[in-house]
Inverse folding.
């Protein structure tokens, strides 16, 4: 099976609509960034806390927000994750010393508003194995040995987290679970209650660490780009390296801009995705450049833009197939990968599209413009006016 | 079979076997296979659940404590040498990075005592530099080499204390280490796989556990101000006002006037353990070392019917009246439940932290969330890879099998490398894995498209394969090296997450050059060896 046999599209003749589209996208993205005062950083980069909570019954974002308002300084954002319907409660904090307090406030006001259990009892929804074992021990210490207690506690926690998605509902749900005796269930009823929610995850980043993470991610990325530029310049010519890096930069800017437009957060995993798409886009560009390099000696009599266009056409079936397949993987990840990978795969989906056309419509035209500019300079330069350039040219 | 092909076959087989051994070992049963897999392929905390903390050691606390001690010793030394001064105090650096700016000022030293002061400092306080700060005033600054040692020592001692406390909780899988490579790095990384209720651990770690038993010279007062007014607005020499811990059922705030110097401190403890009193209330019982027991005996003997206070981290836990001479044991009451009692015993016996701790970062992933991530990631991975395999087989038919085999081998090598290096698989690592798969597919596509081109130009099958592989090889090298170069920078300068991404990607890329170029080509050679091949299914 073959889709493209030997194509001869005039890509470079049709470059303007694409370049204009690129400029529009870039401008829109930058405009959105400017209006919103920079990218929307997740707590990884600005500091703050995020608590992931799953509720048994329907609880609205507003209910949670109201239960917290006035108790924590700064803005409180409550979002619902569309795939899992978990609620994400974010608080912002500027001072390291407040951070742990914020955690306690969030947890205790959740307990007060939605918990509805006896304070002295253990909340079986969020308790770990150790805490469950402690409570079992105080009731059943006489009839069970330590190993049995630990085994039972483990069975309970595992059942809750793997079978019930974190929420038991009632203690009676434990009846008949493998490894949990009826006596143990009765004992737990005296010691524990089941809150109608589970705290599934918690992230806390101090503002200082956030600042560090941000600058570190930035330096690493910029240095990586510089490294690639140097390598390509060494293997090809300087302008190839520059063109490739500009194309990759273009992809990154558009992706970050799009994140700002659809109001998605830039987190550490999104940075990983940006790095991935830098890799993809760079890969794409190098394949085209490599073909140009290979075609140059054989097609010496042709004009440079004809050579570039031919190279793009010769690599077209590879470009479509590779990009298509990786796009497929990214879409699978986006649709099925779960909430944690959502931002990551969104960046990939966008990045693969932009990265594929940037090699053709951004990186390649830059090469041609550079060539044209160099050519034009040659006849226009009066003899003797720029001897340095002239001698350099004749040498070549 | 020619010897080259045989050698290549043996080499590839050996690589495959070594990799499979690295992943699953030599299992004798299905259970053992699962067990070995779980042992070799370690999942990061973000995937399997657990808690990760970054603790910032407030190094300046240790510097301030050192300065306070120095001031006490210096006052004594100056008195002995008959050097008079008007005032002596230290500054109050509040940030970690300002710790080295600690300084002690001595004001109003008579000019004829200057050289005597210099002698005292250089003889007894060698860690400090003495600088003149105008008429009769002097400034002591901490020597840079000493400061560096102090910083390092503070962080090391904090790490040891935290390790002891965590081990005491029975968290055997937990690791405690200095974060980053820099020597002056003052933050500590604590990773606790499987811990999903880190609250207790955090309380335990943060408690500085500075235990003091001191004399009580007055109180209780309802507020700090009340305490001050009752003493004429100025605290008597060598005393301080401390708040009592508020417990349920207590009338409200209570402040006591305590002696500044403790009779007994946490360092004097020989042991501490949770216990219950006659009413079943939990408390911590402790024993004192010999030295301290003598001191405590003398103190209690001469203070019968006076009060003493048990102070923990600048908070009074209990105030009691001394009934009779106490020597080597005592108890801390007013604690709460059993968990608190055993946690407190643990913190007391592990020693006190040399400086305060502030949480810089916490990542807690509950086991149910981690399980979700793995399940979703696997599902997406299976669908994505399935689609890739399907398209490759449809598009390249028989040659597609080569590509799929190369992909599978690539994944095996990557997993084995993770296992051999003891690296953990994290979410960013999975990102690197995806890029690897993408580039592996790309290498195969590049090669096959090249072979097709050569076939179109009328080359024979074997010549086309040779040309296709060797021409595509150049491109593959350039794309791969470029990415490896960028990974080197990401690894050198990136955050932990970015590092995980970079290392997975580099391993995957190296494996890919091997599988897509060497192995895939070998399969063609092996198949076509000694045959007249006229058509190629590609």
């Amino acid at each position: 099976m073959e889709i493209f046999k030997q194509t001869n599209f005039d890509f470079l003749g049709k470059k303007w609509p694409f370049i204009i589209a690129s400029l529009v996208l870039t401008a829109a993205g930058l405009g959105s960034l400017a209006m919103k005062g920079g990218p929307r950083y997740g707590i990884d980069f600005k500091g703050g806390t995020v608590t992931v909570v799953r509720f048994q019954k329907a609880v609205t974002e507003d209910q949670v927000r109201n239960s917290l308002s006035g108790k924590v300084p700064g803005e409180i954002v409550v979002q619902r994750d569309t795939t899992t319907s978990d609620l994400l409660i974010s608080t912002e904090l500027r001072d390291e010393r407040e951070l742990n307090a914020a955690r306690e406030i969030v947890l205790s006001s959740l307990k007060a508003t939605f918990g509805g259990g006896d304070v002295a009892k253990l909340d079986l929804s969020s308790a770990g194995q150790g805490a469950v074992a402690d409570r079992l021990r105080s009731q059943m210490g006489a009839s069970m040995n330590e190993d049995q207690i630990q085994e039972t506690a483990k069975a309970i926690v595992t059942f809750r987290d793997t079978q019930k998605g974190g929420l038991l509902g009632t203690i009676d749900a434990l009846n008949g679970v493998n490894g949990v005796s009826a006596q143990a269930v009765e004992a737990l009823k005296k010691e524990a209650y089941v809150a109608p929610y589970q705290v599934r995850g918690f992230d806390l980043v101090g503002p200082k660490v956030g600042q560090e993470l941000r600058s570190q991610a930035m330096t690493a990325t910029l240095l990586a780009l510089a490294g690639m530029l140097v390598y390509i310049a060494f293997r090809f010519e300087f302008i190839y390296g520059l063109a490739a890096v500009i194309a990759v930069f273009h992809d990154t800017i558009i992706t970050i801009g799009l994140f700002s437009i659809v109001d998605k957060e830039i987190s550490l995993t999104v940075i990983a995705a940006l790095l991935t798409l830098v890799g993809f886009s760079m890969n794409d560009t190098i394949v085209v450049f490599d073909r140009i390099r290979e075609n140059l000696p054989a097609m010496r009599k042709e004009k440079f833009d004809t050579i570039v266009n031919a190279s793009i056409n010769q690599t077209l079936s590879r470009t479509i197939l590779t990009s298509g397949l990786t796009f497929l993987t990214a879409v699978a990840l986006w649709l099925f990968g779960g909430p944690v990978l959502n931002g990551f795969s969104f960046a990939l989906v966008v990045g693969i599209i932009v990265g594929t056309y940037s090699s053709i419509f951004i990186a390649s035209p830059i090469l041609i413009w550079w060539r044209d500019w160099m050519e034009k300079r040659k006849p226009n330069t009066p003899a003797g006016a720029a001897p340095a350039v002239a001698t350099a040219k004749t040498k070549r | 079979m020619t010897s080259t092909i045989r050698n290549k076959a043996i080499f590839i087989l050996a690589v495959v076997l070594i990799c499979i051994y690295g992943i699953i070992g030599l299992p004798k049963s299905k259970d053992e296979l699962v067990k070995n897999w779980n042992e070799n392929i370690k999942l990061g905390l973000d995937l399997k659940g657990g808690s990760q903390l970054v603790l910032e050691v407030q190094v300046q606390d240790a510097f301030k404590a050192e300065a306070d001690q120095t001031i006490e010793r210096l006052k004594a030394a100056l008195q002995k040498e008959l050097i008079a001064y008007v005032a002596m105090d230290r500054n109050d650096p509040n940030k970690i990075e300002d710790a080295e700016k600690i300084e002690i000022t001595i004001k109003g030293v008579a000019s004829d005592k200057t050289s005597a002061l210099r002698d005292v400092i250089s003889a007894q306080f060698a860690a400090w530099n003495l600088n003149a700060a105008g008429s009769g005033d002097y400034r002591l600054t901490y020597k840079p080499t000493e400061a560096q040692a102090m910083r390092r020592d503070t962080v090391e001692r904090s790490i040891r204390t935290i390790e002891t406390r965590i081990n005491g909780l029975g968290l055997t899988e937990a690791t405690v280490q200095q974060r980053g490579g820099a020597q002056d790095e003052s933050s500590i990384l604590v990773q606790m796989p499987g811990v999903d209720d880190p609250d207790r651990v955090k309380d335990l770690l943060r408690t500085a556990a500075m235990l003091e038993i001191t004399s009580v010279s007055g109180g209780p007062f309802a507020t700090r101000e009340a305490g001050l007014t009752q003493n004429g607005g100025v605290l008597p020499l060598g005393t301080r006002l401390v708040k009592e811990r508020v417990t349920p059922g207590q009338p409200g705030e209570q402040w006591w006037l305590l002696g500044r110097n403790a009779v007994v401190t946490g360092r004097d403890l020989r042991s501490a353990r949770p216990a219950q009193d006659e009413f079943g209330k939990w408390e911590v019982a402790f024993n004192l070392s010999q030295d301290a027991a003598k001191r405590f005996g003398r103190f209690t003997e001469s203070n019968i019917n006076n009060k003493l206070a048990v102070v923990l981290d600048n908070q009074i836990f209990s105030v009691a009246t001394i009934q009779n001479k106490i020597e080597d044991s005592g108890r801390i009451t007013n604690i709460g439940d059993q968990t608190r009692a055993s946690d407190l015993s643990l913190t007391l016996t592990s020693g006190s932290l040399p400086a305060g701790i502030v949480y810089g970062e916490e990542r807690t992933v509950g086991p149910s969330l981690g399980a979700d991530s793995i399940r979703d990631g696997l599902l997406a991975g299976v669908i994505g890879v399935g689609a890739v395999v399907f398209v490759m087989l449809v598009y390249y038919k028989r040659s597609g099998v080569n590509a799929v085999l190369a992909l599978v081998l690539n994944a095996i090598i990557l997993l084995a490398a993770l296992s051999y290096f003891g690296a953990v698989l994290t979410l960013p690592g999975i990102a690197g894995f995806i890029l690897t798969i993408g580039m592996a597919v790309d290498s195969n596509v590049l090669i096959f498209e090249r072979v097709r081109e050569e076939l179109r130009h009328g080359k024979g099958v074997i010549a086309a394969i040779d040309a296709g592989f060797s021409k595509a090889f150049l491109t593959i090298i350039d794309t791969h090296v470029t990415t490896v170069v960028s990974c080197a920078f990401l690894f050198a300068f990136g955050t932990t997450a970015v590092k995980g991404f970079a290392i997975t990607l580099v391993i995957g890329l190296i494996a890919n050059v091997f599988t897509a170029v060497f192995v895939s080509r070998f399969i063609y050679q092996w198949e076509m060896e000694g045959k007249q091949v006229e058509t190629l299914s590609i």
The first strand of chain A starts at residue 48 and ends at 55. The longest helix of chain A spans residues 342-380. The beta strands of chain A are 48-55, 76-80, 87-91, 122-123, 192-193, 197-205. Chain A touches chain B through 93 residues (CB under 8 Å).
